[in-house]
Amino acid sequence: MSSEQDRDIIICRCEDITEREVRECIRRHGLTTVDEVRKILRAGMGLCQGKTCSALVRRILAEETGKKAEDIGLPSARQPAKPVEFGIFLQEGDR
Ligand code: FES
What is the pTM of this model? Predict the structure, then answer.
């Protein structure tokens, strides 16, 4: 992906994680999926939920494991969450 000098570039802007950290984590723990990288480094757990960094992590995983990026699974997705007032769960007439 890049030269040794460029490895300090930020891959996950939300969690401030560099390419070097991602590569070292993959090598140290023998990671093979984007979800594994997410669980250990938090890359993909930031505000954008990995919209920006998941593809980059996937590409780095492909390089580090010698697989094609298409063979690296996509990260698991969560439904968007939004705070709601507790009263929304009350039945009509409970108030
Ligand atoms: S850039 Fe990684 S979670 Fe947003």
Answer: 0.78
